[in-house]
Amino acid sequence: MIELTVFRTGAVQLARSAFAPWLEAPERDVFVECPVWSALLRTPEGLILFDTGLHPVHVERPEATFGANPAMRITMTAEDAIVSRLAALGVRPDDITVVVNSHLHFDHAGNNRAFPKATFIVQAEQLAYAKGRPNFPGVYWDDPGLTYLPTTGRARVAQGVDVVPTPGHAPGHQSLIVELAETGRVVLCGDAAFTRANLERGETPGHDPVAAKESLALIRSLVKDDLDRAFPSHDASASRPGTYR
Ligand SMILES: [Zn+2]
After folding, report:
1. Which of 41, 48, 46, 49 shows the shortest CA–CA distance to 2?
2. What is the pLDDT of residues 175-205, one digit of tens each?
3. From CA 64, how far away is CA 44, in angstroms rounded?
4. Given the DSSP bridges, would you call strands 72-75 and 31-43 parallel, antiparallel or unpaired?
5. How far, in Å, is the centroid of ligand 1 from the Cα of 196?
6. Rounded to the nearest whole angstrom, what is the distance from the C-alpha of residue 193 to the centroid of ligand 1?
7. Which range of residues forms the domain containing residue 183?
8. Out of 60-74, 88-102, 145-159, 191-205, least confident range
């Protein structure tokens, strides 16, 4: 029996066009608060974390990672820190067996160093691409004390839990397929889909827009077009916090 808990690790304020480039003025220029979601999976094989969220350095200093940027503002409370979120669920960092990073952007791998006992599953292509790139700040994840398991293609993490490549937002980006006993299959999209609107339109901005479109189609096929089963990474309404079985 697998139990999935979705929780927030902070938020990023962006113009709506950042996730929905098809919008026209004035909608495209409206600033919205986009939550940053992570998820805990309790499985018979151990505790699995999907993405480690924003680092709590941003509670006091929202500009800590990229400086003052009028196009992107971080808002984060102390309760958003992943260690606090996990504590509220009765979980200590060392209890986590496996961490799956969709990719290594700072809002998805911000707390990797809080989990020195875990094995990190990241696509080999993403690891190679992210290393040394300023927009994948290594301070949060590139630590020789962490154990990375470079993965290629679709791979089993545990019974009923598989990573699947969903490139486009970044090379080697991956999503997580989870087979739940009551809810059925769900897909944790990561940044393959920022919002439900990306899945509905089959369109999302990205490093490789063609691959990104294919990845959206793959996610839709994995959930048989039931978009309630797809959890986008930054949707204010479509990624419901809570527990699913
Ligand atoms: Zn990203």
Report:
1. 41
2. 999 999 999 999 999 999 999 999 999 999 9
3. 38
4. unpaired
5. 16
6. 10
7. 3-240
8. 60-74
Q: How far is the CA of 39 from the centre of ligand 1 (A)?
A: 16
The pTM (predicted TM-score) of the whole model is: 0.97
- The CA 108 to ligand 1 mean position distance, Å, reads 7
Provide the CATH number for the domain around residue 69: 3.60.15.10
Q: How far is the CA of 209 from the centre of ligand 1 (A)?
A: 14
Q: Are the C-beta atoms of 120 and 99 separated by less than 8 Å?
A: yes
Number of domains the chain contains: 1
Residue 209 belongs to some domain of the structure: yes
Tokens of 79: 């309760």
Q: Which residues contact 134 (CB under 8 A, 6 or more apart)?
A: none
Q: Please, are residues 7 and 241 in contact by the beta-carbon 8 Å criterion?
A: yes
